[in-house]
Amino acid sequence: AQSVTQLGSHVSVSEGALVLLRCNYSSSVPPYLFWYVQYPNQGLQLLLKYTTGATLVKGINGFEAEFKKSETSFHLTKPSAHMSDAAEYFCAVRAPNSGGSNYKLTFGKGTLLTVNP
Amino acid sequence: DVKVTQSSRYLVKRTGEKVFLECVQDMDHENMFWYRQDPGLGLRLIYFSYDVKMKEKGDIPEGYSVSREKKERFSLILESASTNQTSMYLCASSSLFQATPYEQYFGPGTRLTVT
Predict the structure, then answer these.
(1) What CA–CA distance (Å, rounded) separates A2 from B114?
(2) Is B109 in contact with A94 (Cβ distance < 8 A)?
(3) Within its chain, how far is the Cα of A62 from the centroid?
(4) Would residue A72 be called left, alpha or beta, if left means φ above 0 and alpha means ψ between -120 and 50 degrees?
(5) Strand partners of residue A26
(6) Is A98 at the interface with chain B, CB within 8 A?
(7) Average pLDDT in the A26-47 region?
């Protein structure tokens, strides 16, 4: 089974500071990894994804994440936070193995990012 | 762009009422999902469907049922609403034939309050 751990349910940064949101996963096979963002009272929007190939992936709004197999991590970063980045962020994992449930995602519990002026 | 729509953004129902939440996607996706989202618990899968009339239980199916009579529509039914079903409900869809097979596309959510 896959599981996802997001360290820190709430992260607070100053505008212009580095954003680092942590995600660790457990999977017995190479995973597909996703970061989603949820703005208040909205659904989830894909921020970026890792499937295969380059381990550093770039997403929308200046975010990027690096897949580190040895650390089973997929941390999300942005060099300079903007007020508009305030939202909840979810990490999700999918293992590309066969089976009757191979299209589900397992989500972390989310990290609420606050950006202070 | 994939569009997933949900019938209501906000809904208030009374305890014991039968509640229908509707979800429609316009991209011919085979897979559709219903999640509930609660603070501190993240997203929890209620039910999913991988084809018309096909469904499987997720992690928290108790108190819920689903219906998928057409490929584009997936309904979540609360047979007898209870206050502990007050939550945000999110619908999503995906396709094994899209560029990233497991990427899910989400609707805007329905915030249900049961009083």
Answers:
(1) 33
(2) no
(3) 13
(4) left
(5) A3
(6) no
(7) 88
pLDDT digit string (tens) for B57-102? 988 999 999 999 999 999 999 999 999 999 999 999 998 877 787 8
Element (H, E) at B87: strand B87-94
In degrees, to the nearest 5, what angle opens at C-alpha A98 toward C-alphas A96 and A100?
Answer: 115
Contact call for residues A4 and A89 (beta carbons, < 8 A) = no
Q: Do B103 and A49 touch (CB under 8 A)?
A: yes
Could you tell me which of A110, A107, A89, A35 has the C-alpha nearest to residue A65? Answer: A35
Confidence category of residue A98, pLDDT binned at 50, 70, 90: very low
What average pLDDT does this structure show over A90-109?
76
Tens digit of each residue's pLDDT (9 = 90 or more) over B1-11: 769 999 999 99
Q: With contact defined as beta carbons under 8 Å apart, do A102 and A93 qualify?
A: no
Tokens 């560029």 belong to: B99
Q: At residue A101, does pLDDT exceed 60?
A: no
Chain B residue with CA closest to A46: the answer is: B105
How many C-beta atoms lie closer than 10 Å to residue B38's C-beta? 13
Q: Cα(B108)–Cα(B92) distance, rounded to whole angstroms?
A: 10
Q: Does residue A97 sit at the B interface (CB-CB below 8 Å)?
A: no
**Under an 8 Å CB criterion, which residues of B touch A?**
4, 9, 31, 33, 40-43, 45, 48, 50, 56, 58, 90, 92, 94, 96, 100-109, 111
Beta bridge partners of A87: A113
Number of CB atoms found within 10 A of residue B3's CB? 11
